[in-house]
Design a protein that fits this description.
It comes from Streptomyces macrosporus. The protein is of the alpha+beta class. The protein has 8 helices and 5 strands; from the N terminus they run αααααββββααβα. The protein has a single domain, classed as Nonspecific Lipid-transfer Protein, Chain A (2-Layer Sandwich). Strands 3-2-1-4-5 form a 5-stranded mixed β-sheet. Helix 1 crosses helix 3.
């Protein structure tokens, strides 16, 4: 089953998939299926597109004067780090870790990350069940979802 899903996803142009469609795709997959297909080039493409969309789905009116660096550590086949900077009413994303100190760091596996950003998981439940690990400003982390338009599947 995972190979046919992987083949189907590998053929997708993720830039052309709406956030709502992406949420439906993630909702239809089990954690095991996501973990099985999030390997190699497909993983890099999916994570890259999710983080690119953060800039477009940012809600500056909700962030107000927030100034924060958020580090995302996605574990799986290998650890991948992205950083989101919210400052001056804008959101910028970069792949990789800088020397700057983040206000908060979120660490989670591939499946949990995709479920979170697609609106298919509750961040509080993920934290309580230790699927989401936080370091730094927990208050900032707990409010992150309000700064982005998160689709509903």
């Amino acid at each position: 089953m995972a190979n046919s899903v992987r083949d189907e996803l590998a053929g997708l142009d993720f830039a052309a998939v709406s956030p709502e469609e992406f949420a439906r795709i993630v909702k239809g997959l089990s954690t095991r299926e996501i973990d099985e297909i999030m390997r190699g080039e497909l993983r890099r493409r999916v994570l890259g597109e999710v983080f690119r969309r953060m800039e477009r789905q940012f809600r500056p009116e909700s962030a107000g004067s927030l100034d924060a660096l958020i580090r995302w550590k996605i574990t799986g086949e290998s650890d991948v780090v992205y950083e989101t900077t919210i400052a001056g009413g804008t959101c910028t994303v970069r792949e990789g870790r800088t020397d700057a100190a983040p206000r908060t760091t979120l660490t989670m596996g591939d499946a949990d990350f995709l479920k979170l950003v697609s609106g298919n998981a509750n961040p509080v439940t993920m934290f309580i069940t230790r699927k989401l690990k936080l370091a730094g400003d927990i208050g900032l982390a707990s409010g992150l979802t309000r700064y982005f338009d998160i689709p509903k599947a």
